[in-house]
Design brief:
Elements lengths: L2 E4 L2 E4 L2 E8 L3 E11 L4 E17 L11 E3 H5 L19 E8 L5 E13 L4 E7 L7 E6 L2 E10 L2 E10 L4 E9 L3 E3 L14 E5 L2 E4 L1 E11 L7 E11 L15 E9 L17 E10 L5 E9 L12 H5 L7 E5 L21 H5 L10 E11 L9 E13 L26
Antiparallel strand pairs: 1-2, 2-3, 3-4, 4-5, 5-6, 5-17, 7-8, 8-11, 9-10, 11-12, 12-13, 13-24, 14-16, 15-16, 17-23, 18-19, 18-20, 20-21, 21-24, 22-23
Length: about 425
């Protein structure tokens, strides 16, 4: 496994993609394709992906605090808040670094030095394994270690620090991880002990005279997927329980089994069908497929969305002013047809936004999304209840999601991977 890295263009293992930088979004990943070793060709996965918005409403309605509501990308710019990474601390010793550039208010170029780092992660994880013990007197074990490529940016948006990782896996997956750290927004109080609190303090007493206010973090990604081409569809697979009727005509069988489950497949026709709250007990699998491309046995090639923690959605009322600005935060998944003017979930001008120009407003047009060039908007959400360990600087807490190939390859794409006994393994490196 070999790799090379040119500034802003990367080919590593079975991936190639472009790394960009934006004053509002910070790191932008585009033109991501994965190599299909069996077919001997490069295949499209992601046309462009970036963090579109970070919505942070605080939960204290009092006079001095009710306005503490932030749109970190739209109000301040994530790229403008990306400061130099610290070698050996923010990124490991084998990392390489990239500078970002953007234009300031006068149109002059600004250099964001060491804003992005790229490194290989080889930390003892397993790519695939199996032990076969069925042979008498013989134990057969095959294991392949997991090596991934990480593209990292850290954004210090005021008091909070967000670490954004794009992780490319040799199994064909793209994993996005958000890690939160930094300093809580705290409120002065007369309380010195929790026994003194007789009413809602809107937070946690972290130290004498110091309350860490309850708040949310909603990090919304814009992911313009091109799964083996641009004409994609959104599929919701829902697990449905069934009783065994004993009749094969209704899916049953003449056996003692009394129950089983099966899958109900729904192809989203319009934007209204493309909205999902993943906490509501809905679909088990959310897929993005190319109906015009199929495997040798007839399955539509696709990628599926796998949430990995941080799945909170907004609890604010729809008529509350912060919620009107970020009305999309009630659901984690939105799917829209591609429109080059629809990049920012909070609207083009977030600071003065009223909710008339945002992701939820666009989706009210209920446009067609079946067999179209479609965009996935996914929101990682955290209800942050502060604890004393978060004070004075909080340890990182993370959430993630993964885009994983699903019938995209004919078989496990790592079957060609050499076992670790090979003297050339691992043979991965990145350099500018």
């Amino acid at each position: 496994m070999t790799s090379y890295l040119h500034p802003f263009d990367c080919r590593w293992a079975n991936w190639e993609f472009h790394v960009g930088f934006d004053i509002r979004a910070s790191t932008v990943i585009s033109m991501a394709s994965v190599h299909d070793g069996d077919a001997g060709t490069w295949r499209q996965v992601l046309y462009r992906g970036f963090v579109s918005e970070i919505f942070v409403p605080y939960m204290d309605p009092e006079e001095e605090w009710y306005f503490h509501v932030f749109m970190d990308a739209g109000d301040y710019g994530l790229g403008a808040s990306a400061f130099p990474l610290q070698p050996g601390a923010d990124c490991p010793a084998n990392a390489v670094y990239m500078d970002g550039f953007y234009a300031n208010a006068d149109g002059q170029p600004v250099k964001a030095e060491n804003a992005i780092c790229v490194f290989e992660r080889y930390a003892g994880d397993v790519a695939w394994r199996h032990t076969e013990a069925a042979f008498p007197g013989q134990l057969v074990t095959e294991v392949r270690p997991d090596v991934t490529l990480v593209v990292r940016t850290v954004v210090s948006a005021g008091n909070y620090d967000y670490t954004f990782d794009w992780e490319f896996k040799t199994a064909g997956s793209i994993k996005c991880v958000v890690s939160l750290s930094g300093i809580l927004e705290m409120k002065a109080t007369s309380y010195t002990h929790v026994d003194q609190i007789k009413e809602d303090a809107h937070g946690t007493l972290l130290a004498a005279n110091t309350v860490g206010v309850y708040h949310d973090h909603f990090v919304t990604y814009h992911l313009d997927l091109d799964v083996d081409g641009t004409e994609n569809s959104f599929v919701k697979n829902t697990v449905v329980p069934r009783r065994n009727t004993g009749d094969p005509a209704t899916g049953g069988a003449d056996t003692p089994r009394r129950s089983y489950w099966t899958v109900r497949r729904e192809v989203a026709e319009t934007e209204a069908d493309g909205q999902v709250n993943i906490n509501s007990g809905g679909p088990a699998d959310l897929l993005f497929v190319n109906p015009s491309k199929k495997t040798s046995v007839g399955n539509e090639v696709g990628y599926r969305l796998i949430p990995a923690g941080a799945t909170a959605s907004s609890l604010l009322s729809d008529d509350d002013y912060p919620q009107r600005r970020a009305s999309y935060s009630k659901k984690q998944v939105w799917v829209t047809p591609y429109d080059k003017s629809e990049k920012w979930a909070s609207g083009l001008y977030a600071e003065q936004g009223t909710g008339d120009d945002n992701l939820a407003a666009w989706s009210r047009r209920n446009r067609r999304i079946k067999e179209e060039d479609i965009v996935l908007w996914y929101t990682l959400g955290v209800h942050h209840l502060p604890y004393q360990e978060d004070f004075p600087v909080m340890p990182t807490v993370s959430g993630a999601f993964e885009l994983r190939p699903s019938n995209f390859f004919e078989r496990n794409p790592l079957m060609r991977m050499k076992p670790p006994g090979n003297p050339n393994f691992p043979n991965c490196s990145c350099h500018i």
